[in-house]
Amino acid sequence: MSEKAPAICVLRLSALGDCINAFGLIGGLKRTYPQLDLLWVLDQRFASLFCDEHDHDLVPMIKLDFKQGTLHAKRSLKQALAERDQPFDALLNMQTSIKASVCSLAIKANKKYGYDAQRSREGQRFVINETVPSPENPHVLAGFMAFAETCGYPIAEPVWDFQLDPYVLDKAKCIVGHEKVFALCPCSANESKNWTLEGYVELCLYAHSQGMCVVLLGGNKANEINLCNAIAEQCHSKSQRHGATPFELINLCGKTNLRELAAFLSIAKIVVAPDSGSMHLASALGTPVIGLFARHDEQRVGPWNFMDLNVSVYHKLAQNELKGKPIPWRYRVRTADAMSHISPDQVISAFDRALERYRI
Fold first, then answer.
1. 270-274 and 289-293 as β-strands: parallel, antiparallel, unpaired?
2. Are 110 and 272 in contact (CB under 8 A)?
3. Share of the chain above pLDDT 70, in %
4. Deepest of 55, 107, 264, 312, by most Cβ within 10 A of its Cβ?
5. CA-based nearest residue to 327, from 312, 345, 310, 311
6. pTM for the complete prediction?
7. What is the DSSP letter of 325?
8. What is the DSSP-derived secondary structure letter of residue 211?
9. In what order do the strands lie in the sheet with 130-132?
10. What is the per-residue burial (b if ≥16 Cβ within 10 Å, else e) of 85-112?
């Protein structure tokens, strides 16, 4: 009789960028330890990115709906797990939130791993029985990988495989109709992380001067659509005023689902984005991405594969606010106009560096 495969449940509900990083961890586990029985519990709002075009899960998932509250989601999770006759060998509770802690109570596991005192919060310590030491690397994904190592399944690197359908990629290429695509994803879920309209416009004009077609990408929220519309209008206006060649810009904000967003980011030569899910998605797809940071530490939440391209004023602002005291791992800069401290010259310099380094 064959030995039962070790069963591991990964609990990471949100947000989109963190789910993308969790998907990389799970991919690394799948590749390194194909015998593992893996299950991922996440918020259903983000799950479609991790399903193929036929709605098949890329990894086994339980998708929770929180519209009726956390307790309802916990009950649905308990029902979904009711048929499992054995507890998981390990639960990797990689989210320090009340939602995650409550949901973890519905998961039976011999060992429940959570963050150590440095990173734990919101009562997570009461629902775990094993702690994961914080790694030297401050990045959130390095912290995820520490979970795998602590439970006995270390991985050398994360692995992302979104299995994008060639048809979807071809469709994206046909819509753009240009070989050199610069994708700008100007919006974060938190508006205070967005760069300035003027900065985005200047960057788009510069990308156009380098022979690139600008594609604007974003969600369907009014503030995202309004910002992308303003960028497009000002780019066309300034381009016409200076008698430049017709400005190649395609505004797709609010017109893509998550899988289509992935397709456009995949065909882009370079991406610029503030701290956002789109930034992490571009990185996971292997597309050079310049992350813009002022509110949060780029060393903690930057794009894993392209940390060398980040433009950040975070440490300068944080040190000013803390008056020289050590910066806590989760510290958020409070300066109201923090992102305006990033200059267009800084971003254009990173853009040139990416063009040269990746031979774009």
1. parallel
2. no
3. 98
4. 264
5. 312
6. 0.97
7. S
8. T
9. 61-64, 37-43, 7-11, 88-93, 109-115, 130-132
10. eeebbbbbbbbbeebbbbbbebbebebb
